Amino acid sequence: MSWTEKLTQTRAGLRTLNAAIPDTAKGFGALSKAAKDGGALDLKTKEFVALGIAIADRCEPCITLHVEALRKTGASREELADVLSMCIQMGGGPSMMYAAKALECWDELAG
Q1: Where are the domains of the chain?
Q2: In degrees rounded to 5, what are phi and psi of residue 96?
Q3: pTM (2 d.p.)
Q4: Architecture of 3-110 per CATH?
Q5: Tell me: the pLDDT tens digits for 102-111?
């Protein structure tokens, strides 16, 4: 399955889940907005942090969402690669495998 298909599938799954638990989804949405808006760090930096956690936790759906968000912030492939290096340094072999997935996702979404 391509990363574009995984992104579509992830969004569809989230829509289904959100419909089943609207109050929780609304609360999580408010939490996400509060974490992303304002503060000392810009959105791109916050999305890089989120991607690092997604790699460390080995969450492919999270990788797709945060790589897409990073592309929208204007992040570069070089910045992504630098963050992936830190993920590997902190997480070793398993993070290296998921860092490769994040880069593959970036390249596919970049078209």
Answers
A1: 3-110
A2: -65, -40
A3: 0.88
A4: Up-down Bundle (1.20)
A5: 999 999 999 9
